[in-house]
Amino acid sequence: MILYAPPKTASRLPVIDFADAFSPDKAKREAVAWEIHKISRDVGFFYLVNHGVRQQLVDGQFDWTRRFFSLPPASKAALDMSHSPSGYGYERMGAQALDVDSPADLKEGFQFGFDIAADHPYVQQGSLRYGHNLWPQDLPGFREHAQRYYDALRQLSHRLLSVIALSLHLEEDFFEPALRTPIATQRLLHYPPQPAKTAHNQIGAGAHTDWGLITILAQDDIGGLEVCNADGDWVRAAPIHGSFVVNIGDLLQRWSNDLYHSNPHRVLNDKPLPRYSLPFFQDGDQAQIIECLPTCCSAERPARYAPCSIGDYLAAKVRETFGAAGVAA
Ligand SMILES: O=C(O)CCC(=O)C(=O)O
Ligand SMILES: [Fe+2]
């Protein structure tokens, strides 16, 4: 359990202008990579602007998200994630405790992933987070929009990881093989206002690190996301219209031999209004082995972790935070 202590107000997260990441000029792409390198070794979180995703698409996804959470409880319950062998679908209020020793999170969610053929071996094996998306039947148009949003975010995650490869002195396409058949999950989250009285240390999302490679988060204008910086101080990630908040996840920290940081964050909605957010998690192919990157280990800095597969790492995290509720037996 990480006890809640209020954030400092003075500091704020850095902003990365991503326009030059799309430049044909490699020197310009390298300049963006260097900024990302510095931040990733420190707080591991940044706002991303000029990222190429149309604002209309993001706004539309928030509209569909509000409509989804306004569905009658029975419609949402019919999509409960326990019905999907992949753990996709509806996450009821209190289903997850992201900070494992704390009370359940005060949020409800909906998650879906990569649209993969039903006869793909990963789906046939019942692998976590492959196939078995559940879609609401009583919201025509929801699925089509969600998939357009997902495609845009997936593309952006590829571009980000190509710049991150550059930032680690790797070929720009280094991560591509790990992204072809990915565990890439879009969550839609709803946080009601924090009640006046809750269980000890119960908030919207308990302090946690993200598990995958990178997370790309759209948040509405309510605020509530708080990030722990390298000094151990909590900093508010106040909403910046038109930006995404991007952060490094555990698997990239591990792959980079702790050079890059996957830092804790949490959510507390202290406004009297509901908060919605849309985190996209790019976690990579379940079969990919995470083993110290060639540019991140040396005689002075030997590999700190035993090799492990992405699939095994994520399955352990799902078990820890959802208990048996996250995946069909
Ligand atoms: O809702 C947010 O702002 C953050 C959510 C989050 O950290 C997560 O789902 O991992
Ligand atoms: Fe998170």
UniProtKB/TrEMBL annotation:
UniProt keyword annotation of Metal-binding present: yes
InterPro entries given in the database record: DIOX_N (IPR026992), IPNS-like_FE2OG_OXY (IPR044861), IPNS-like_sf (IPR027443), Oxoglu/Fe-dep_dioxygenase_dom (IPR005123)
Annotated PROSITE patterns: FE2OG_OXY (PS51471)
Fe2OG dioxygenase domain residues: 181-284
Keyword field: Iron, Metal-binding, Oxidoreductase
Keyword check for 4Fe-4S: no
Any one Pfam family match given in the protein's UniProt record, by short name: 2OG-FeII_Oxy
PANTHER family: FI07970P-RELATED, OXIDOREDUCTASE, 2OG-FE II OXYGENASE FAMILY PROTEIN
Family in the record: Belongs to the iron/ascorbate-dependent oxidoreductase family.
Protein name from the UniProt record: 2-oxoglutarate and iron-dependent oxygenase domain-containing protein
Lineage, opening ranks: Bacteria, Pseudomonadati, Pseudomonadota, Betaproteobacteria, Burkholderiales
